[in-house]
């Protein structure tokens, strides 16, 4: 279809739905503004959550994030230390310097009463919606410009990765139940693990369906190619 066609359709849709889109976007931005920290990210709030588990150094915080919420949230040292400095200045966390023999001093951060209240307030604010960026889907959308085998290879690798994720989430759930049977927070942790497992299982199902569709497309291409070759031979 021509660019003019898409331009006409886009203009028509914008005319009909622009007011609703504008209002929805304003609502989204308002929610996002409440959910985000004044620095523009949720990094400080994420650190408050991690410190609610126990006092930690910046290095330990990074390790705990990788081992606990790392499947759905990540923070780098470049984000952690500036945020800790800001949280300390605001009185939300307290810094204590520990002396170490033969090693540099270590700063350990703990949550204050004010910080715990801030964490509670943040948890109560609805989470802001995020627009995902998925390179696999982007390439699949334009997959018709390359051999079907290229798309099939990418999807097959994706399915394998998600199958590994399902197994990993199952192991994490077993470990949490085994090591934290009486921890009241563990039930909330398991909710996030369950989300990851269900999400990966759904992606595996989608991937298998997509592989079948790609195989059907590839089969159709092969039949057309074979038919053209046969027709050419008959003409000769």
In short:
The chain has 236 residues and is mainly alpha-helical.
What does this structure look like?
- The chain is mostly helical.
- The protein has two domains: 42-124, Orthogonal Bundle (Arc Repressor Mutant, subunit A); 135-232.
- It is built from eight helices and three strands.
- A three-stranded antiparallel β-sheet has the order 1-3-2.
- Helix 7 runs antiparallel to helix 8.
- The two termini are 36 Å apart.
- The model is unreliable at 5-11, 13-18 and 31-40 (pLDDT under 50).
- It comes from Edaphobacter modestus.
- Figure out the total of helices: 8
**What composes the largest sheet?**
3 strands, antiparallel
Mass-distribution shape = elongated
Strand content bin: 5-15%
The end-to-end span amounts to 36 Å
The ordered string of helix (H) and strand (E) elements is HHEHHEEHHHH
Helix/sheet category: mainly alpha
Rg from C-alpha positions?
Answer: 26 Å
Mean pLDDT: 84
């Amino acid at each position: 279809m021509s660019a003019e066609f898409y331009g006409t359709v886009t203009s028509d849709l914008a005319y009909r739905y622009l007011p609703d889109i504008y209002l929805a976007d304003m609502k989204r931005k308002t929610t996002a503004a409440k959910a985000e920290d004044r620095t523009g990210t949720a990094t400080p709030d994420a650190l408050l959550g991690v410190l609610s588990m126990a006092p930690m150094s910046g290095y330990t915080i990074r390790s705990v994030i990788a081992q606990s919420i790392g499947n759905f949230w990540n923070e780098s040292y470049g984000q952690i230390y500036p945020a800790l400095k800001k949280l300390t200045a605001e009185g939300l966390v307290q810094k204590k310097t520990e002396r170490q023999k033969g090693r540099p001093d270590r700063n350990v951060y703990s949550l204050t009463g004010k910080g715990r209240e801030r964490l509670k307030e943040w948890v109560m604010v609805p989470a802001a919606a995020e627009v995902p960026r998925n390179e696999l889907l982007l390439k699949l959308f334009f997959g018709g410009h390359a051999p079907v085998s290229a798309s099939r290879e990418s999807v097959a690798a994706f399915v394998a990765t998600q199958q590994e994720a399902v197994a990993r989430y199952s192991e994490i759930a077993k470990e949490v139940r085994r090591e934290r049977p009486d921890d009241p927070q563990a039930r909330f942790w398991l909710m996030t693990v369950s989300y990851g497992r269900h999400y990966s299982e759904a992606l595996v199902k989608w991937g298998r369906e997509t592989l079948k569709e790609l195989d059907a497309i590839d089969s159709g291409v092969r039949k057309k190619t074979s038919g053209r070759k046969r027709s050419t031979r008959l003409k000769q």
